[in-house]
Amino acid sequence: MGALNNGTSTTFMRLGHEGRTEEVVRRMIEVIELGVFAEGEQLPSESELAQQFGVATVTLREALAVLRQRGLIETRRGRKGGSFIRAPREVSQTALLERLRQMSLMELRDLGDELAAISTATARLAARRATTEHHVRLRHQVEALGNAATRLERRRADAHFHIEIAVASQSVRLTNTQMRLQAEVGELFWIDSADTPDIAAIQRQQRALLDALEAGDVQLAGELAEAKVTRSIKRLINLRLEQLAEEEIDG
């Protein structure tokens, strides 16, 4: 696996409904875009992957065909053949702003409410349940953020930090939901603007949350997780308000 370990990846690859090609495609896009599978990494065999998703092999093959059409995987023939991950391109600032433009303020608030609820719950549970191994992996993600050279790498490191907290909560459902939300809105948090927080500030927030988890401080862990999401969503709402103001002037 890429940034997350093998045991973790199979946790959030399991689907809620068997036999649905579109669900497999959606989940695979999530794990590829978030960097769970590294660029050039070979996927497990079709039978193994189908078992991990809990779907029939024919369903898995249909999903892989869709992913090939979208350029997210490539299939090589021969003795060393198989399906391999192709790295997603970094989304441009213009494309991110346009994606934000398509969202309403109510939609942003709803996403923020859901993400805050999930992040708070996973942090509280992780404060009770996380092991030393979980703490080590979280610290690795904090350092990965500092070493990230591109927006895509920074986005992935931050997303992995929150996904690892969900994994440490030892709740499969909450981990699946956190991953879906990170894939849905996480990239927008990295739109460049005048009030974009610097990496050092984000690392301080992550370290404070990690310290609370290591100390087993359930209340503080939940409060810090919620505050981080609240700041990020508030920034997006302000950016959206600026867009609306510009549209009103242009109109």
Automatic annotation (TrEMBL):
Record bears the keyword Transcription: yes
GO molecular function: DNA binding; DNA-binding transcription factor activity
Keywords in alphabetical order: DNA-binding, Transcription, Transcription regulation
Ranges of residues in domain HTH gntR-type: 18-88
UniProt KW Transmembrane keyword: no
Database matches in InterPro entries: GntR_C (IPR011711), TF_FadR/GntR_C (IPR008920), Tscrpt_reg_HTH_GntR (IPR000524), WH-like_DNA-bd_sf (IPR036388), WH_DNA-bd_sf (IPR036390)
SMART domains noted in UniProt: FCD, HTH_GNTR
Protein's UniProt name: GntR family transcriptional regulator
Organism lineage: Bacteria, Pseudomonadati, Pseudomonadota, Gammaproteobacteria, Pseudomonadales
